[in-house]
Amino acid sequence: RKEVEQDPGPFNVPEGATVAFNCTYSNSASQSFFWYRQDCRKEPKLLMSVYSSGNEDGRFTAQLNRASQYISLLIRDSKLSDSATYLCVVFWGSGGGADGLTFGKGTHLIIQP
Amino acid sequence: DVKVTQSSRYLVKRTGEKVFLECVQDMDHENMFWYRQDPGLGLRLIYFSYDVKMKEKGDIPEGYSVSREKKERFSLILESASTNQTSMYLCASSPMGYGYTFGSGTRLTVV
Q1: Among A46, A99, A102, A107, which would you mutate to test the B interface (most chain B Cβ atoms within 10 Å of its Cβ)?
Q2: Are B36 and B87 in contact (CB under 8 A)?
Q3: With an 8 Å Cβ cutoff, is B102 touching chain A?
Q4: Is the distance from CB of A103 to CB of B42 less than 8 angstroms?
């Protein structure tokens, strides 16, 4: 069974703080990993891919731990505009790849002034 | 930038109506998807297509059908709309094995 689990939150964090959340996945054959951001009543948008060596994009850092089957997202110096739901996405690459993405239900982050 | 366009942002339909949701992408992607998103349930895959005239059932295909006559267009059809199909519908496209680009969604209300 392909499952992706996230803490739904909400995480209430003061502006300027660092926040991190994890996502666990059930299938060790997973190939690719992504974080998506979804604002209220909007579509999900790709935030960043997650590479085995970890990767950073400005204030955002994504890490992959294959041994423990989780990925993480760290946000430094959080801004009010970071308030959103963050979706963890895992790609299994089954068959033609078309059905291989599984979405977590998202972690709701609220940055407070 | 890849653009995925959904024809309607908001729709209100009556129970029993046949409903068409249209999705067009402009980047020649092989894969296209239809999801619905409901509070507490997350994104659930309805149907997907990896080529013209090809379609595969997702996790919740009951009550829906799809059509992909051209590579850029993937249509979701509600044969006879019911109130439990009130939801946010999201179309997405992707090249093989990469992340999705979503359309802006259609919020469908069935009354």
Answers
A1: A99
A2: yes
A3: yes
A4: yes
Amino acid, single-letter form, for residue B48: F
pLDDT in tens, chain A (113 residues): 568 999 999 999 999 999 999 999 987 777 789 999 999 989 999 999 898 888 999 999 999 999 999 999 999 999 999 999 999 998 876 544 445 678 999 999 999 99
CA separation for the pair A41, A108 (Å, rounded) = 13
Q: Is A89 on the interface with B (CB under 8 A)?
A: yes
Residue type, A72: S
Strand-pair category, B106-110 with B10-13:
parallel
The DSSP bridge partners found for residue A11 are A109
Q: Choose, out of A30, A50, A101, A107, the residue to mutate when testing the contact with B (most B CBs < 10 Å).
A: A101
Q: Which amino acid is at B32?
A: M
CA distance A112 to A104: 24
- Ordered alpha helix ranges (H), chain B: none
Whether the CB-CB separation of A61 and A47 falls below 8 Å is answered with no
Structure tokens at B51: 């080529």
